[in-house]
Amino acid sequence: MKKDSLLKIEDLSVSFADHTDRIQILDEVSLAISEDEILGLVGESGSGKTVTALSIMRLLDPAAKIEQGSIRFRGEDLLAISQKEMEHIRGSQISMIFQNPRSSLNPLKRVLSQVAKSYGRKKGVGRVEALHEATELLKSVGFPDVERRARSYPHQLSTGMCQRVMIAMMIASNPDLLIADEATTALDATIAEQIYQLLHELRQRTRMSILIITHDLGVVAENCHRVAVMHAGHIVETAKVETIFKQPGHPYTSYLVRYLPRVDRKVAMPSVRTTTVEEVDYASSGCRYARKCELAMEICFGEKPEMREMAPGHWVMCHFATPEGAPEKAVETSNVRF
Question: In this structure, are residues 274 and 259 in contact, taking their beta carbons and an 8 Å threshold?
Answer without folding.
Answer: no
